[in-house]
Specification:
Structural class: alpha+beta
Low-confidence stretches: none
Shape: globular
Oligomer: single chain
CATH architecture: 3-Layer(aba) Sandwich
Radius of gyration: 15 Å
Mean pLDDT: 89
Largest sheet: 7 strands, mixed
Strand order of the largest sheet: 1-2-3-4-5-7-6
Distance between the termini: 28 Å
Order of helices and strands: EHHEEEHEHEHE
Number of strands: 7
């Protein structure tokens, strides 16, 4: 299995995977247009030509980024793919000099195991809520906010 940046040829597989979870209400759906526009944010886990997982690091401000759309095929869950995808995003954030990474999630325990801490959503800057306006659950968000503060590294 290999973690790598997404390519144009991956987008339709990524779209299917993310929206499979979105249909269950586990994340915000992503349009093909959104994925193409943000392809540089996306990492994939590929195994023998098949996309097994996806995760994105979206930069929001000079010191803040978001982990988005973490999805792993059901048959591949529990194999470390999610952990490896988030690790790739964290490493990229470190290289860029990002100090804080957050996620809004239904799986806070997963994130806590890999160095994130739970916070109140109100602690996140209002700037992040633009994405939330598209969510059918807004303003009654039932996701948990988690954050990881990086150890002083800069690019």
């Amino acid at each position: 299995m290999k973690i790598r940046k997404a390519k144009i040829a991956d987008i339709k597989s990524i779209h299917r995977l993310i929206n499979e979870f979105a249909k269950k209400g586990e994340m915000i759906p992503r349009s093909l247009n959104d994925l193409y526009e943000n392809i540089r944010d996306i990492f994939v886990c590929e195994d023998r030509g098949e996309i097994k997982g996806v995760c994105a690091l979206h930069i929001l401000w000079e010191d803040l980024a978001e982990i988005r759309s973490l999805s792993v095929k059901l048959a591949s869950q529990g194999t470390g793919i999610g952990r490896r995808l988030v690790s790739a995003c964290v490493k990229e954030a470190e290289k860029l000099g990002i100090r804080k990474i957050f996620a809004l999630t239904y799986h806070a325990d997963f994130f806590k195991k890999i160095g994130f801490s739970e916070i109140d959503k109100s602690e996140l800057p209002q700037k992040i809520w633009g994405e939330c306006l598209r969510c059918p659950k807004f303003p009654e968000c039932d996701e948990t906010a988690v954050i990881r503060v990086m150890g002083g590294k800069t690019a």
